[in-house]
């Protein structure tokens, strides 16, 4: 059963479980499941000018909603997600939307992703998560890749100079970087 099909209480219990596992010692999980609001997704895609020809990577893609929104704009989406239920939900959502040709989901630690194909990277993680995952993918991250992070800035050394814009619409902050 998908997370959405669990109903309000089931979804809240699922989210709580994802919070708890982030607190375990040595966990690879750097953020709980908490989806980006739709209004922020469209803003993030506008700010990064996602269009046909782009390849958007979502590191920690959850139920795939950012990937689907990018695919609806004609871009390809690649998501990395550790949680098996969420990875399955993301694939199922792509199939149901008829977008499976544009969306790929990898069930793995996003810190090990090869992002050399990415023109855009979307993040909604945590301070620690941004640092851990971006440090992990830094070898394959191409200069010029647009990186957009909802809510959390990137605290890695040198990334203040890569910040190109901070959008604070409705108080929901999106940080934009050029790698
Ligand atoms: C805050 S949610 C964001 C989901 C989605 N990107 C969105 O914006 O709606 C963070 C997601 O990252 C996943 N995650 C956490 N650590 C991860 C890791 N090391 N590798 C892959 N996925 C991870 C969690 O399971 C969760 O689904």
From TrEMBL:
One of its GO terms (molecular function) is protein-lysine N-methyltransferase activity. The keyword Methyltransferase applies. Belongs to the ANT/ATPSC lysine N-methyltransferase family. The keyword Transcription regulation does not apply. One of its GO terms (cellular component) is mitochondrion. This is Methyltransferase domain-containing protein. GO terms for biological process: methylation; regulation of mitochondrial ATP synthesis coupled proton transport. Residues 58-144 form the Methyltransferase domain. Keywords: Methyltransferase, S-adenosyl-L-methionine, Transferase. It comes from Edaphochlamys debaryana.
């Amino acid at each position: 059963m998908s997370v959405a099909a669990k109903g309000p209480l089931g979804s809240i219990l699922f989210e709580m479980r994802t919070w708890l596992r982030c607190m375990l010692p040595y966990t690879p999980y750097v953020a709980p499941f908490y989806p980006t609001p739709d209004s922020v997704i469209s803003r993030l895609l506008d700010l990064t000018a996602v269009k046909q020809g782009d390849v958007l990577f979502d590191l920690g893609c959850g139920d795939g909603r950012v990937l689907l929104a990018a695919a609806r704009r004609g871009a390809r989406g690649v998501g990395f997600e550790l949680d098996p239920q969420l990875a399955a939900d993301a694939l199922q959502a792509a199939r149901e939307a008829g977008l499976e040709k544009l969306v790929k989901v990898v069930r793995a630690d996003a810190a090990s992703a090869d992002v050399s194909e990415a023109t855009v990277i979307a993040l909604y993680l945590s301070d620690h998560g941004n640092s851990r995952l971006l440090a992990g993918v830094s070898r394959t991250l191409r200069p010029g890749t647009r990186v957009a992070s909802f809510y959390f800035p990137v605290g890695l050394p040198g990334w203040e100079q890569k910040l190109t814009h901070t959008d604070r619409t409705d108080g929901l902050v999106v940080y934009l970087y050029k790698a």
